[in-house]
Amino acid sequence: QTIDLLISQPDEIRRLRRNPIEDASHYGVLVEDQHYASFISIDTNNRIFYWIDEATSEIYRAHLTSNTISTVLPQALLNEDNNHLIIPSSIDIDWIGHNLYVTDRIHGCIWVLKNDGRYATKLITNIESPWVITVNPILGILYFINYEQGSMNNPNERIVAIESAYMNGENRTILVDTDIVYPTDLVIDFYQNYRVYWADKKKESIESMNHDGTDRTIIAHIGIHAPHSLDIFGSHLYWINRDSRSLYTIEKFGRGLSTLVIDKLELPLFVRIYHPLKQIQSVSNSCVIANCSHLCVLKPLNQYECLCPLNTTRQVNGRTCKAPTVDPPGNPVECNCLNGKCVYHVETNSGHQLAGCLCFRGYTGENCTLPQTPPPPPPPSKLWIVIIIVSVSLLLIGILAFSLIQLKRKGKLQSIPTPQLPRNIKTIMNKIRNFIIRSTDNINTVQFRNARSTTARDQITTKSPAVFPNPMYGAITTASNQPARLATSSDELAKLDIEVQPPPSKPSRKATPASPQSSDA
C-alpha cells in the first residue's frame, strides 16, 4: 500500500511516495524556502501537516496536496503570539481534541494551543530541557524526552529520561531513566497496544515499551548506525541515519536486517509517515460536549478539562475563561490538482490566500480531473495549398535537373536512338538488329535465360526443335530419319554471324512418316 514519507531538511521538506508492493517511489519537494525545518506532525484525517522552522521559531501548517509535484503554501501560527513567547523545539498534534502540543527548551515547559495557533498556555513547567514530544489522545497521555544536568558533584553528567503525563499536565511520571544515552525521537504504534518506540543515536539502538513503561524491549541493535528519527506504520519502522544521509526500514518486531529505502539525501532531520489509516479515527471526543470557551484538553478514561489562555483565569463554572475570544485564522489553502500543478496567490490588500490549478495537457476543470478533447486543426487555406504544390513541383524539377547534369558529367548518360515506325517486317528486323548491336557494344557478357554466359561476338548456334510423332504412324519406319530444322531467312542470320546449316530435304507425300528421333545439327 502506498505511503507518503515526509522528510525535513534545513531548507525544505520533501515527500517520498512509496509503494513497497510495486517497488515504486517518487521523491519531490513539498515545502520550499525554509530556514531550518525540523519536527513534523500530521493530522491524517484533515490532511494537514505541521512543522517547525527552528531558525525563525515559527510553527507552520499546510494542506497536504494529493499529487507529488505540487508544493504547498505555508500558514504561520505563532506570528501574533505575544511577540513570540513560544520557542518551539518539537510538536505533535492531538487529532481528536484538535490541539497542538509544543515543547520549549528555552522556557523549560510544554505548551498547548489550538491547532490554528490560538489560546496558547503553559501545560507543564519546571522541566530542565524538554525535547521530543508525542501524544496519545486515545489514552489521554503524552510522552516527552527530558535532558537534565548532573548533580553538584558531577555537573558534566547528563541525566536523560523518558517521561509521561496526562494531556492536561497532571501525573508527570518518569518511565525510562536507565541504560539510555541520547534518545532523539519518540513515536507511538496505535495498532499494537499503543506501544512507544524511541531511537537512541549514541547507543545505536531502537527500543520500545508498553504505554505504561513496562516490557522494555530492544527492537534493533545490530546494523543500526546512528538512528536520529523514526516513525512506524503497519509492520515496519522507518528511520533516518543523518551520518550516511539515508532512510532505512526494518520490521517492527526486530526480525531481519534494515533495508535501504533512499540515500544521498541532502541533510535529513526528521521523518513522519502519512497514510489515512495511521491514526485511529473511530474514537469518541469528550470535548465535543464540554462547552469550553477557549481550550479543551483530553484526560484518561474519556475525561476532559477546560483550560484558559496564558495569564487568564477560569470562572466559577470551570468552562468559561476571563479572556477575549479570537476569530480563527481560517484553514490553510487547499489545493487538489489531480492532473496538474498547484499555483498560489496572496491578495495584497486582504492577505487572503488563493490557490488554483495549472492543468497538464489533455486535462481541464477546477481540479484538472476532466479529460480535454483537443480541438480539430483548422483546414488549410487555398493559398497554402497552392504554395505547397508549387514548392514541391519546383523541388522535384530541381532534383531531376541536378541528377541529369551529374550523369552527363560522369559520361553515364547516353542518348538512345528512337526508331521510326517501319513499313514492313524486314525493315522492322533490320531496325531491331541494328539497335541491339549498338546497345550491346560496351557489354562484355550477356546472361541468357538458360543461364549460359557467352560473349556478344561468340558464334551462336541453334538446336533442332523436338519433333513429336503422330501415334497413328508410330509402327511404320522410313529410311528418312532426319527431323526438320528451324527454317530461318539465311540472309538475316548471316548478318547476325550465325552459322547456317542446310535444311533437310522434305519427305515425299507418299513416303512413310519419319520415326520420332532428333539429332543436333
From TrEMBL:
InterPro entries: 6-blade_b-propeller_TolB-like, Cueball_EGF_LRP_Nidogen, EGF, LDLR_classB_rpt. This is EGF-like domain-containing protein. Residues 479-521 are annotated as: Disordered. PANTHER family: EGF-LIKE DOMAIN-CONTAINING PROTEIN, VITELLOGENIN RECEPTOR-LIKE PROTEIN-RELATED-RELATED. SUPFAM superfamilies: YWTD domain. Keywords: Disulfide bond, EGF-like domain, Glycoprotein, Membrane, Repeat, Signal, Transmembrane, Transmembrane helix. The keyword Repeat applies. Residues 479-491 have a biased composition (Polar residues). SMART domains: LY. LDL-receptor class B repeats lie at residues 194-236. The keyword Glycoprotein applies. The chain crosses the membrane at residues 383-405. Residues 357-368 form the EGF-like domain.
